[in-house]
Amino acid sequence: MNWSSLLASHGLLLSGLVKTIYLSVLAIIASTVLGAFVGFLRAARVPGLSLILRLYVEFFRGSPLLVQLLFIYFGAAYIGLSGITTFIGALVGLTLYEGAIASEIFRAGVEAVPRAQREAAKVLGLGRWTTSVHVVLPQALKVILPGLIGQEISLVKDTSLAAVIGFPELVNQSQAVISNINQPMLVLLAAGVLYFIICYPMSIGARILEKRRAS
Amino acid sequence: MNPTSDTWAEVFAYMPQFLSGLRITVEVSVIAFICSLFLGIVGAAARRSKHLAARLAATVYVEAFRNTPLLLQVFIAYFGLPAIGLPISAFQAGTGALAVNAGAYLTEIIRGGIEAVPQGQYDATHVLALSRLDAFTHVVLPQAVRNVYPPIINQFIQILLGSSLLSAIALPELTGVSETVNSITLRTMQVFAVALVLYLVVSNAISLLASLVGRYAFRPPLETRADSGSFRRWTQAVTARIPSRGKLAEAGEGGGDS
Predict the structure, then answer these.
(1) Do B72 and A195 touch (CB under 8 A)?
(2) Which H, E and C letters describe B35-90, residue by residue?
(3) What is the reported pTM?
(4) Number of folded domains in chain B?
(5) Domain locations in chain A?
(6) For residues B21 and B172, what is the distance between their CA atoms, to the nearest angstrom?
(7) How far is A120 from chain B (nearest CA, A)?
(8) Helices B174-185, B4-12: crossing angle, 10 deg rounding
(9) Is B160 inside any structural domain?
(10) For chain A, how big is the Rg over CA atoms in Å?
(11) Chain A CA closest to residue B166
């Protein structure tokens, strides 16, 4: 294997890594906000809204992210929406898909809090808002956080699908480097190591939170 | 400009191609699922082994594959292996990468399912003087299977949806076929809408079927997708028509044991 050729093109890989991190961070923020919003609304069982939210979640969870990205990115061009860059297409697709999955984590967290907690708050004369924010939420977060971090790990890995619609993130740039130096194994393993360096600490973090919750 | 119905008819004309793509999607997923189940069982056994080397190898396997993207693993199998002298077809590379990836997740699912069986159950097998094999097959395994059934079905659906990535190595599965039909008809919205609906139908069919099996095959019936009230009522109505396994056994053996 020719290490010097890899070192010579490390600039491309690093710019891909930066774009992967940039896309990941924005998608994590957007999908967490969307997921929390949808999850809490579903847990509150708002009549009429429940069915729509459930259809949203089932649709995005039951079909592949890759096809969703193709649908959003190329579909936007098809209906004549201008200004949908590969970055915006990837960000919108990731947010909708990961938001649907995150909403299930938030909903499960809220529903894991025993009913008696709400009843006790009512007896104590706390209002709906105070009960939700100061009684239910802190207990729900203990359940939500480990699952949510696990979800963010999936999200970082899923940003690799943006390569298929042409966003120059890490996998996309690896392919560019491969076409330059023709060392596919070396380049792909190097990209794998970079993903591992991001994801493994997150995995450990999720495990620690999970253990803390269990004890 | 064509009226809307014409653009749909244009895409529906390619239904045989979509369905042949779907067949490859299902084939790849089933083969990968069976292989990954095997890998998961071996991996879980290795992670619980008393030999350090086996535990270490299984841990490295699980962490390496769970902390890198599936797409990258598919590329390593398809572009990387031939470059180091291992020629491999798109079908083999794709199925293999899916299987090895899911195997890492199943290792953790199966290990977790076995470890979730309460210690008291093991203690009871000692008191009853069961052999290690009997204790595992008759006490631990049935409970572990119950624990891992829902996440294993979920993993199968993940394999099915993940197989869409194999379009990136030119395997003509459902997503790959859709891209081809798109490049012919240029009806992007319609083409990918058809693909999305086909994936939704298959993934929901698997999950429905698995819930029915779960209600019927486990005692007490396993509740999956318990969030959906209408679905629960429906499966209860269906399973009520099927004689339960206990009743069948009683009828067959002439009297139950309890």
Answers:
(1) yes
(2) HHHHHHHHHHHHHCCCCHHHHHHHHHHHHHHHCCCHHHHHHHHHHHHHHCCCCCCH
(3) 0.89
(4) 1
(5) 3-214
(6) 6
(7) 25
(8) 130
(9) yes
(10) 21
(11) A66
Q: Which positions in chain A touch B64 (Cβ < 8 Å)?
A: 192, 196
Q: What is the distance between the alpha carbons of residues B117 and B112, in angstroms, rounded to a whole number?
A: 9
- The pLDDT tens digits for B158-213 are 999 999 999 999 999 999 999 999 999 999 999 999 999 999 999 999 999 998 89
B2 close contact with A: CB closer than 8 A: no
What pLDDT sits at residue B255?
39
How high is the ipTM of this complex?
A: 0.92
Of A75, A163, A183, the CB nearest to B189: A75
Q: What is the pLDDT of residues B51-95, one digit of tens each?
A: 999 999 999 999 999 999 999 999 999 999 999 999 999 999 999
Averaged over B39-58, what is the pLDDT? Answer: 96
Asked: is A3-214 a CATH 1.20.1260.10 domain? The reply is no
* CATH number of the domain to which B63 belongs: 1.10.3720.10
A63, A171, A178: residue with CB nearest B196: A63
